[in-house]
Design a protein that fits this description.
Strand order of the largest sheet: 4-5-6
Shape: globular
Order of helices and strands: HEEHEHEHEEEEEEHHHHHHH
Number of strands: 10
Number of helices: 11
Distance between the termini: 39 Å
Largest sheet: 3 strands, antiparallel
Structural class: alpha+beta
Radius of gyration: 21 Å
Helix content: 40-55%
Number of domains: 2
Strand content: 5-15%
CATH superfamily of the largest domain: PDZ domain
Length: 335
């Protein structure tokens, strides 16, 4: 899935090696540890890959039931212009140009080709070379967003995208349908939030240390907010404590449905709530807006029998038809 990252917060590259506003020609290469810079970038990519793998599995597995579904190949790019020092990032990764592969989500069409290795240099998206698009000297994330949007448009209009690599190889990739949410790794912070069209998770989020299906629980919770239209509903009707609780309770209860359709055990939603207790001050457990975690875990567990019955009978759990809503997405509820 094509997703822009939260790059303005990225603290992994050579920003410390340059004085603020320093020109690229002023880089003191004697002070730059290029192996360390590459390791920092690859560490970010490691966490990003884990998020994209889980996000893709959830978005793909639930595509039949999303109101807004799009074609995608599961590819994320990176642009050296988004780093604090593009020149240092290029040298650390051994690139001549700015664009390269960031991730190819596990199980996606991009990953299936075997062509999209991390940091492989990209010189063409369809008929355009994104490296030729103008960009500001550093910390420019807009061009990367433009590249991802361009790929999305090609998939929608042409039914495939041809990607060209340095060295002359090209590969044409056809998409599959996924729920229309992008998954982004923030370069700092430990929160997980949904914005309506994105799921953003901080690189220090403790769930990255959990086994995959438990980590998938929090990704599913945030994805549920987007799929259920909670941001738009709260924008219209206000973020009172009772309104916020309703949306959080709905997102909790939809978690196991999304997990089951993605091939995870729906019980992992309950395991996540039991594992990630409210000790960190995360927005997932703001006092007053969320029920006690035990109550939340019990509510989630109550969904599992219906999910299992539907999956056994039909091969998947159609939450668009069978999930009980607690809010009317078109109207407000009386407190």
């Amino acid at each position: 899935m094509h997703r822009r990252r939260v790059l303005t917060a990225l603290a992994l590259t050579a920003t410390l090696a340059l004085a603020p506003g320093a020109a690229q020609a002023d880089v003191n290469w004697n002070r730059i540890d290029l192996p360390a810079e590459r390791t920092a970038i690859e560490t970010f990519q490691f966490f990003d890959q884990r998020l994209q793998d889980v996000g893709w599995q959830l978005a793909r597995g639930n595509a039949d039931y999303c109101d807004n579904a799009i074609p995608s190949i599961g590819l994320q790019l990176q642009d050296m212009a988004s780093y604090g020092s593009p020149e240092v990032a290029r040298r650390a990764l051994g690139l001549k140009r700015d664009f390269a592969v960031q991730t190819a989500a596990r199980g996606s069409p991009a990953a299936a080709t075997g062509a999209f290795a991390a940091n492989r240099e990209v010189i063409r998206l369809g008929s355009f070379d994104p490296n030729e698009w103008p960009a500001s000297p550093r910390l420019n994330w807009q061009r990367l967003k433009l590249a991802h949007d361009h790929v999305d448009e090609l998939l929608e209009s042409e039914g495939s995208v041809t990607v060209g690599f340095a060295g002359g190889e090209t590969v044409e990739v056809a998409p599959v349908t996924v729920c229309a949410t992008r998954f982004e790794l923030a370069g700092r912070g430990d929160d997980a939030v949904a914005t309506g069209d994105r799921v953003v998770i901080g690189i220090k989020f403790p769930g990255f240390a959990y086994e995959e299906q438990v980590f998938a629980g929090v990704v599913a919770h945030e994805l549920a907010h987007n799929l259920l239209g909670h941001k738009a509903w709260l924008d219209r009707h206000g973020r009172s404590r009772s309104n916020t609780r309703r949306t959080e309770r709905e997102a909790d209860r939809l978690m196991p449905w999304l997990l089951a359709n993605a091939g995870y055990d729906p019980v992992a939603a309950e395991e996540f709530l039991e594992t990630y207790k409210p000790t960190s001050g995360s927005v997932l457990f703001i006092p007053g807006t969320h029920q006690k975690w035990r109550d939340r875990a019990e509510a989630v567990a109550g969904e599992v029998p219906q999910i299992r019955a539907l999956t056994e009978a039909h091969g998947s759990a159609d939450w668009r038809t069978h999930f009980r809503r607690e809010i009317d997405p078109q109207q407000s509820l009386d407190d």
